[in-house]
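Quick log. Single chain, no ligands specified.
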Amino acid sequence: MPETYTRLTEEERYQIYEGVTEKRSHRKIATLINKHHSTVSKEVKCNTGLRGYRPKQAQEIAQKRHKNKPRHIKLTADVHALITDTIQHEWSPEQIQGRLKSEGVTMVCATTIDGFIQKDKASEGELHKHLRHRKPYKRRTGSSETRGQIIGRISIDERPAIVDEKVRIGDWEADTVIGKGHKGVLVTLADRVSKKTLIAHVPSKHAEVVTAAIIKLLLPEKEQLHTITFDNGKEFAYHAQIKKALGTDNYFAHPYHSWERGLNENHNGLIRQYLPKGMELDKVTDEEIILIQNKLNNRPRKLLGYKTPNKVYDAMCLVA
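-> predicted structure:
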C-alpha cells in the first residue's frame, strides 16, 4: 500500500523526473516509488519552473526548507515559569521572546510561546485570557469636519520636523477614551519616543476638565516638554491654557486623520485590553488607572529593543 504524504529522497525525485519526462501519470509514478499520488502531484506542482521539473533544485529547496522548519522546543522549568509570569502581566508572545533573547534564551520563538498558551487553554487554563486581541485598523475616509473650528488652532503641518525624527523625549500626543453612554472619560498622553503613557480619569470631556487633567499629568515633566499634538475634539479647545501652564507648542492633526497620532491611537488600544470597548468608565477608580498605567510603562516594547517605556524615558531624561 502506498504511503501517505511523506518527504521524498533525492533518488525518488530523479525517478519522478524520469516519469515526468516519459509523460507518465502522477498515479503511475507514485506506484513506482511506493508513494501516495498526492505526494507526487504536490512535488511536481511546487517544483516545476520554466524549464520543467528539475530534481536537483527540488532537492536543494526541500533540504533548505527542512533546515529552517521550526522544531519543537521543550521548555525548561525556569523558562516555563518566566513565560507564565509574564503572560499574567499581559506581555505578548513577541515581547516575551524579546526578553528571553536578551537573557540568552534564543531557541524560544513567539510561535512556541503561543503554542504554550494554546496548550494551556486546551487544558482549561486561563493564560489566554491575558492576551490582547485587536481588530484591524481602519481609516475613515470621505468625511468632512462638522465640529467647528478651535480658536488659535495650529496645524500639524507647522510642527517642527524634529518631532518626526524622534530623537528626543517631550513630544506628546493627547487623546480621550470615552466610556459607554459617555459615562466616564480617560485623558491619555503618549510620549512619541519612549512610548511612555500617562492616564487620567475624569467625569466628562468638557474642555476645562480635560485641560486641568493634562496640566496635572504633564506638570512633573515640564523640564522635558516640547510639543503636544491633539486631534480636533472640542475637549482640547483650551489648548492656550495648556501652553501657558506648561510652555508647550501645541499642534492639531488634520480632521479624521487619526493615523497622524498613531502612537496615541495604538496606546488607547492597549488600554482597551484592561477596559474593553463598550464599558462604562464612570466607576473606574484612580487606583485602577494607576495600575494600568504602570503595567503599560513597565511592559517591554519591540520598537524599544524590548526595553520598557519607563526605562527609555528615564535614561533620556539624564541626557536631555
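Residues 134-147 have pLDDT under 50 and may be disordered.
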